[in-house]
Every structure is written in structure tokens, then in C-alpha cells.
Amino acid sequence: MVRIRQTELMEESQAAKQNFIESKEKFRLSDLTLDELAYRYFEIDNQSRLLKGKILLEARSRFKADIDFGNWIRGVELFDTYHRSQLHNLMNLARFFSDRNMDGISVTVGYEISKPSNSDIAQDLYNLALNKNLSVAQIKTEIYKARGLLTQEVIDSAGKTELMPLKDISIFMKQVLSDIANLPKIEAIRVLDECKKELKKEKNNNF
Question: Backbone phi, then psi, for 161, in 5-degree steps?
């Protein structure tokens, strides 16, 4: 029955997509400037991610336990489409941005803002990022500054001053671990191992 319903939904989706392509829209792509094309692209991408997140949140609300939700995800083959961390990213994004616009905020920056580990500073991060087109590196810098891990003096004198005071390393580690918290344990360990290898490689290249 699930397969039959999936087939019906796919047919309905294809029909809707064809109607969209064939219909006379309010604009033609050929009438848009390059800046307008770029804006339209990112706007559609943002909206599609938000809608996917909302769908996942609605589905999750219908299950009593995460394991049941996970079984459903695998049953409808969403697990093969998105990594587990991506599912959480989409849900976090939809939860935080449900009543906020994303003008000038990329999806990847939105993921950082909407992480549960940043819930206490999310609104401040949002205010900083809105209409700014910040990169992921820039929003992470703002997160570290908000956590007291970076000061403007340290940023301005990068390369001359110790970037991370020893006493703050434990806080920094918590932030890093929160970034990989949704990964399976074996994957999280692999990511940390790869980071260690890259750091050693970088250190050797500096000598």
C-alpha cells in the first residue's frame, strides 16, 4: 500500500511540475537580470529546504519515539536521500525560521543559527546575519565571539596572538562536539580523526 501511494504521489507531483512549466508565470527567466536570477535561485532553494523541514517536523509529531520516526524515514527511503545529520539540519531550520524570513541568509548559515546548541544566542545571530550574506566561516566567528572564545583584539591581531586561550579550550571542544552530535558515533570519530590528520599535515607544511 505504501508503494502504491508513493507512486500516486509521484504522479501528482509530476503533473503539478508539468503544469508549472507550461503555465504563464508572472515573469520569464529571460526577463530577469543576473542578480535577480541568483536571488530567485537561492530563494527557491531556501523555501524548498524549509518546506522539507516542516514536512519532517509534522511527520515526527506523529510518532511517540525517535526510533519509530527513524523506522518511518527508512521505510519511505528518506534515509538514503539525506544523511541523518541533514535531516536534523532541515528540522532545526524549519523550527527556527518558521516565522522569520531568510533574506541574505544562506541555508548553510541558517543551519548554524538554528542548531539547538546555539538556541540561547540564535536570535542575536539571526539579527547579525539578516540581509548580510555572511559566509559559514563568518557566522561561526560570530558564534565564537558570542561564546567568549574570540575577542575583536584577537581577530584583528590574528597570527600574532594565541587564537584560543588554554582555559577556553574545553568550551571550544563542546562547540565542536555539538557540531557532530547528530552523527552516528563511528562517523563522529572518523570526522575527528580526519581533522587530526589534516591538522598534522598543516603543521608539517609550516616547517
Answer: -120, 150
How many CA atoms lie within 13 Å of 14's alpha carbon, on the beta-carbon side?
6
Angstrom distance (rounded) from CA 166 to CA 14:
57
> For residue 187, what are the domain limits?
162-207
Q: Is residue 8 part of a domain?
A: no
Q: Is residue 64 part of a domain?
A: no
Total count of domains within the chain: 1
For the stretch 84-119, pLDDT in tens is 778 889 999 999 998 999 989 999 999 999 999 999
Model pTM greater than 0.70? no
Closest CA to 54 of 94, 25, 88, 93: 94
Query: Does 171 fall in a domain?
Result: yes
Does some domain include residue 200?
yes
Tens of pLDDT along 112-153? Answer: 999 999 999 999 999 999 999 899 989 998 998 888 776 555
Q: What are phi and psi of 151, to 5 degrees?
A: -115, 160
Cell (9 digits) for 110: 541558517
